Amino acid sequence: MPDKRAFETAKRKIIGVDRQRFGIGTLSEKTVHAILKNYYEPDEDRHEIPIQNYVADIYAEGEIIEIQTRQFDKMRGKLGAFLPLYPVTIVYPIPHEKWIIWIDEESGTLSKRRKSPLKGNPYVIFPELYKIKMFLKDPNLRFRLVFLDMEEYKLLNGWSKDRKKGASRYDRIPTELVREMEITCPQDFLQFVPLELKGTFTSRDFAKAAHISLPLAQTTLNILYHMETVDRVGKKGHLYLYETKEG
Predict the structure, then answer these.
(1) Could you tell me the pTM of the whole model?
(2) At the topology level of CATH, where does 192-244 sit?
(3) CB-neighbour burial class of residue 224 (10 A; exposed 0-12, middle 13-18, buried 19+)
């Protein structure tokens, strides 16, 4: 269970009770990263610890925690250095419910916040897992998916007439810690197989059951097959047939 009181403490520490006093995006690191780092380790003496020519976000009691919001491929060097020595947990934040706020760079005014119709789901981590596929079976590697309600601030600097398409994300401000999911061993990947998938199924069946796109379902199944969660047992047309592996 997430410790919501500790999360509120970390949030206040980074952005204050009234974040407008500090301004958005004025910190040296983005707000989601900074809050989660303080949530998982309030003692700043354990932050930014040099290990094997790299810097760990958190090192405490013989374990490393890395907060990574995207671009897992940039962690390959770190993982190659850290994993032979210590257990490593990668914390991956996922927007649960998100409100968009637009910033006009010229006037500095903020739009009213608008709720995004998109809701975060755990499968969004799989394209990132694919980038570090070579490390996934290492027994020292773990993952924690953190679902956060958040406000996302975007600059009105896009190429479309309303300046929204292609616009830059400025910062994300977490408002609430909703839940956490953990992957601590290969068996934990089984939680990503929808329960209604009995017998054999294709990536198209998986996409429908998981309510995700076909390309995302195919990437997910690539990793689940690699982790021996599912077997490939044939083909149906040009699609592989899968079934959940026994045991």
Answers:
(1) 0.86
(2) Arc Repressor Mutant, subunit A (1.10.10)
(3) buried
